[in-house]
Amino acid sequence: MIYAVRHGSTDRDKEEVIRAEADFSLNNSGIAQAQNLRKRFFAENGREIDVCLCSPMARTEQTAQQIFDGKIIFDDRLLERRYGVMEGAHFDEIDYNGFWNFENEVQYQDAETIAELMERTNSLLNDIITSEYDKKNLLIVTHGSTLRALRANLLNENFNGDFRGLPLISNCELIALRPKKIHLAKPFITLKSPNYGLTQNLS
Q1: Calpha distance 35→47 (Å, rounded)
Q2: Domain coordinates in residue numbering, the chain
Q3: pTM to 2 decimals?
């Protein structure tokens, strides 16, 4: 089973400023969210985690540490979508809706495309299902858009051109998914995934 979690809340969450690549910590509420998730979903229901994969950011690492006591494996494919020159910009300074629209995607310098986000999360999932982790309970701690991409790939969801039309994932919200043969979610089914490598070997 794959348990995928978005990091807990931070003081930056309410700012309408793009800070995807900025590294900052959970606030007290975010820590409490993660502790509560561990208690109510895992401890009280007897669910166990064998392995934890995590985005290498402070907010995700701290979330993982509150939920899982074992060794955390970091993987760059779980980072938030890269915004390039938009990093640090206010939402009203860019075409934010266009940036998330696949059919008419507005591209900015050094920013990651939706297709690239889908491909790297697809690559991670296929590494998981072809490794020993396929038989284990796996915790993934990541970011909002990355979690949407993981879900879309696992469920082969078609978001009709608008990535933001996928279900919103709240802070410390968990989705449970069974690993299976992964294909790129529509309309990415024909794309060839680049060759990514784990920060640390899965085996």
Answers
A1: 15
A2: 2-15+24-177
A3: 0.86
